[in-house]
Amino acid sequence: MVSVNPVSRLRSSSRSPFLQVVKTAVAVVAAVLLCEVVIRGPFPTFAAIAALLVVQPSINQSFVKGLERSAGVVLGVVLATGLHFLLGDSVWVVLVAIVVSILIAWALRLTPTSATQVGISGMLVLTAGVVTPNYSADRVLETVLGAAVALVVNAVIVPPVLLRPGHLAVARLARDTAVAFERVAIGLTEGWDHDRWHDALLRARSLRQQHAKADAALTAARESLTMNPRGGRHRMILDRDVAVTEHLRVLVTRVTGMTRAIRDNATPDLRADPMVGRIATEVARIGADVRALGRQVESTELAMTEPEAFAEESEPALTAPLEVVRPNSRHWILIGALLEDIRRVREELLGEDD
Length: 354
Known about the structure:
The protein has 11 helices and no strands. The protein has helices at about 20-40, 45-55, 60-85, 90-110, 110-130, 135-155, 165-190, 195-225, 235-265, 275-300, 330-350. The protein is elongated and about 90 Å long. The model is unreliable at about 300-310 (pLDDT under 50).
């Protein structure tokens, strides 16, 4: 049994970009200095905490964190102030405030960030000293200023654009999907046995997980472009990648179904049917077209500054739909299923109507 060092769980597998560290530090310093000028009170702890929490990998996430943080602080400060005037100033009042804040967060279905902030804010207010309406209002103002400063800093200092990971994931998925179609063509031509088809099926099924990862990367890219002043020139590339990924979702389903059907129904004499050879040729052409689609996605990597300059699409390799003159009495079900899959793939690649 492999032992896991608990200390290792404290470390992440990757570092945050150093620019993120710089932006967080700038946000904290700017928030504190602004509060010193505007409020002129004790050290603006609430502003510093808000700035630390609100600087996120994307501007949209920063905006959401700012709202969550501000809502939690307002609830916590109001709760602490009310309990202070009703019950006085003692240790057990702080405990009551924490318990009540937990119950309020549960009743209102607050997000984890807001729920935690209600209790923390109430505890800090009650333990910081004399609680007055002005003191409570200043703490709320601190939080709002800290969140606002963090949002501005995150938007002004090179706001992040997470387009590249999703873009590369789509190109990789297209390439691997093309390989799966080419694998089917080779297997039909060479007459693979059950074991080799089973291995091909496992590889085809792995494309579903790869598609899910590409989809998640594109979601992260769209998140990074939301409310991002740098996002305008990147959205065209993202929209194209999303469209290609949707096409690939259908193609992954088809190539997996084709591979499974051949694994379950192929026999050694399947290769002797002339129609199988024509099917293999057409599947190879599908692989070539999908590979060309992947190259088109990869080519936009050179056009990041000019998204209009997409590569010209090459002519498809697919020919006219195949027709069966004399069905095979033994393999007609398998051949018919493969022909139907080819027809649907053809429609997806060429945009043909049913």
